[in-house]
Amino acid sequence: MTEHLMSTYARLPVAFARGEGAWLWDNEGNAYLDALSGIAVCGLGHAHPEVTEAITRQAARLLHTSNLYRVPLQEELAERLCGVTGMDSAFFCNSGAEANETAIKLARLHGHRRDVSNPQIVVAEGAFHGRTIATLTATGSRRVQAGFEPLAPGFVRAPWADADALAEVARRRNDIVAVLVEPVQGESGIRIPPRGYLADLRRLCDERGWLLMMDEVQSGNGRTGRWLASQYEDAMPDVVTLAKGLANGVPIGACLARGPVAEEFRPGNHGSTFGGNPLASAAALAVLRTIERDRLLARAKELGERIAGGLGRALEGLDAVREIRHRGLMLALELDRPCGELVQRALDERLLINVTAERVVRLLPPLVLGDADADQLVDRLARVIRGFVGQQ
């Protein structure tokens, strides 16, 4: 019964009735191993007891009052997030795109207050920052931009993972105020930059007086084995955006900042009706507590190595596999050919995966995945890939 839905997704022929941990059950009672986590959202898996209890308790007390009033749970969440990221202040919204819009507005306001009349933000080729007009413009994909022109001005595009190219951009322009980059590019295929790239960006931004803004919507909240993927290098951002896994399925986004830019906004500059309401804040706090208590940062790193290593052994000698790469539980298996049909083939094997950038199998399993589940993931995916390659 999808005839009344706008056709924005080519939905798979399955609907899920319930979930527990890394597993989902469809309406007919079939169990599926979830290696996608709602696209990196359900980091604690499905129906996590602590998140369920926090949502239930808060729903019985108070859902929403608006940001016209103090929201103590939002204040507590801001303090906790700033503590684990090294930031000074937070703004809460409802999604990653909204968080990135906030970062863009912060950068422009920061530039104007420093007498830059037409402030520009450097963004990377292959980036994905959202689907609003501004974040769509910042995204480095003509495929998703096509048909939505005119795009927003104020962006300069540079090659991904090339600090020298960015330095050349710096030499040619004097209107740049910020760099917005994903420390791991998710939508373009789990692209991990060479070591030193993020630190080079930090140094260049310091030299030029630019803001370094990290989009950690997909890579944040412990997914890579650190609270932020940028913490793998000496590259502390001035602005960082979070969403997806922050509240395990309850919509929330956050834009965090430190230093002078953390104080740029004044009442009336920005806002959100729903952002950081009591329900979303309670869920996010439960997520943070659970990640810390259960040491899930270390677990994400361990699981990533187990899955990547297992796939490497299971697919050894298969020429169609170009590369297996990972940072924690952001994993990619790149083939030498288009492989979109693997999504349906995996679904037939009761495994949920994603294919992005046409040739990359993207895996984003929950941080609570068990060892036996991780091994099942490897076995099922390897069987699907070998069958696909063999038939071709």
Radius of gyration: 21 Å
- The CATH class assignment of the largest domain is Alpha Beta
- CATH-assigned homologous superfamily of the largest domain: Type I PLP-dependent aspartate aminotransferase-like (Major domain)
Helix content: 25-40%
Beta-strand fraction estimate: 15-25%
Series of H and E elements: EEEHHHEHEHHEHEHEEEHHEEHEEEH
Task: Kindly summarize this structure in a few lines.
36% of the residues lie in helices and 18% in strands. The protein has 392 residues and is of the alpha/beta class.
Describe the protein in words:
This protein has 392 residues and is of the alpha/beta class. A seven-stranded mixed sheet has the order 4-10-9-8-7-5-6, with helices on both faces. Strands 1-2-3-13 form a four-stranded mixed sheet. The protein has twelve helices and 15 strands. The chain has helices at 37-40, 49-59, 72-85, 96-112, 133-138, 142-145, 163-172, 197-208, 278-293, 296-314, 342-348, 371-391; strands at 16-20, 23-26, 31-34, 89-93, 120-124, 155-158, 176-181, 211-215, 239-242, 253-257, 321-327, 330-335, 351-352, 354-356, 360-363. Helix 2 (49-59) packs antiparallel against helix 9 (278-293) and helix 10 packs parallel to helix 12. The protein starts with 15 loop residues before the first strand and ends with a helix. It folds into two domains: 16-34 and 295-391, Aspartate Aminotransferase, domain 1 (Alpha-Beta Complex); 50-293, Type I PLP-dependent aspartate aminotransferase-like (Major domain) (Aspartate Aminotransferase, domain 2). The chain is 36% helix and 18% strand.
